[in-house]
Amino acid sequence: MKKLIIWLADNKNTPKILIIIISFSILIRIGSAILLGNQISDLPGVSDQISYHNLGIRIANGYGFTFDRPWWPATPAGEPTAHWSYFYSIFVAAIYWVFGPQPLMVRLIQVLIVGFLHPVLVYQIGKHAFSEKIGLLAAAISSLYIYFIYYSATLMTEPFYITGILLILLLAILLVKNFDQISNDRKSFLLFIFLISITSFITILLRQVFLLFLPFLYFWIILSLGKKNFGKSIKFAALSLTITFLLIFPITILNYLRFNQFVLLNTNAGFAFYWANHPIYGTHFEGILTKSTYLDLLPKELYGLNEAALDRELLKRGLEFVIQDPVRYLFLSLSRIPIYFMFWPSPSSSILSNLSRLASFGILLPFMICGTVSTLLGFKDNFSISSPKILLLVFVVIYSLIHIFTWTLIRYRLPVDAVLILFAAIGIQNILNFVNKRANPTNI
Predict the structure, then answer these.
(1) Which of the residues 87, 104, 170, 202 has an alpha carbon 20 to 30 A from that of 431?
(2) 176 and 386 in contact (C-beta within 8 Å)?
(3) C-beta of residue 364 within 8 angstroms of C-beta of residue 423
């Protein structure tokens, strides 16, 4: 055991350790893919994969972004839909076009990509934000995290979405850390603009909610680079955002041609905000509605509107709920916090869900808190806005608030889990250091 600890502590062995972590990450996710199999089932928290499976088949067969029968949330048969991620739908359709409607092929290709990238990105972020050891420990935790193993093999946006967010955070950290060198080399400057723009574009295509975090990302970059590089940082942000929206623009045009009205990307924000803040909840939000069905809450007078028009009208009415009773909205939003950070078992959840929750977020939460607190205390003597730790904490706070003030489900927290695992690694290291000092007082 002592020899193993010494081997793990040797920095020369970092590449070998990382290879072991990556290999394990891929293998266990392949196991998850095989376990979920070649069928699409309505398993806990992953019902969206039924939609992506059917939409993938329709696209692969040349019917475009439509369903062959009335579909969730209120899309008539054969009518255009923009409710689902264009990028992920095309990903599924491309695999179905080559291999036929084989969900297992999607699962296997997906877990190979995510199983490799996720631990590598976590390691790199940990290395640059904390230390190489923290990066390795966080990568190992990520490879074992049950939620990530489970969702990596599902036909849903979460695996690629989380990976995209991690890549954007890493690129922002590397940009700020090496900006003097990057800004003085035209090719490097343009390369980073391209990388952040294309990664942001793909991540937004997976889930448009990430658009709400982008201003905070660029604000951190500009603040971190300070007055000295203010002009260059503004130029970088302006060019990156311009390219990102130019990439989005063709999809907006496509949506206009399909719906005859403006839709930036997807038609889901209105549905989500309306349902999440409906007066039926009072001041107590439910993650899954039990008092009624979501379709029952749709105003009857809006039936017949196309998906885009309905989404826009629902967003308008959802905002009216907030304006009419802001106090209720505040308490309703506060009631979403326990649901968002839920780690305890629930009688309404399946055994699989309860075990997954306890064995992942439930176990790591104390370490996440410990690591976050110790990081915040460390700022007391050594605070710098350009610290990568600040960006990671800003993401955790802002992204959490976005969902707390809109619609909350446990799976919406998973991108935050991916970042908090880095702080869990800090917490574990702190506890191990404390135990070691108590066991070996002469080393103090």
Answers:
(1) 170
(2) yes
(3) no
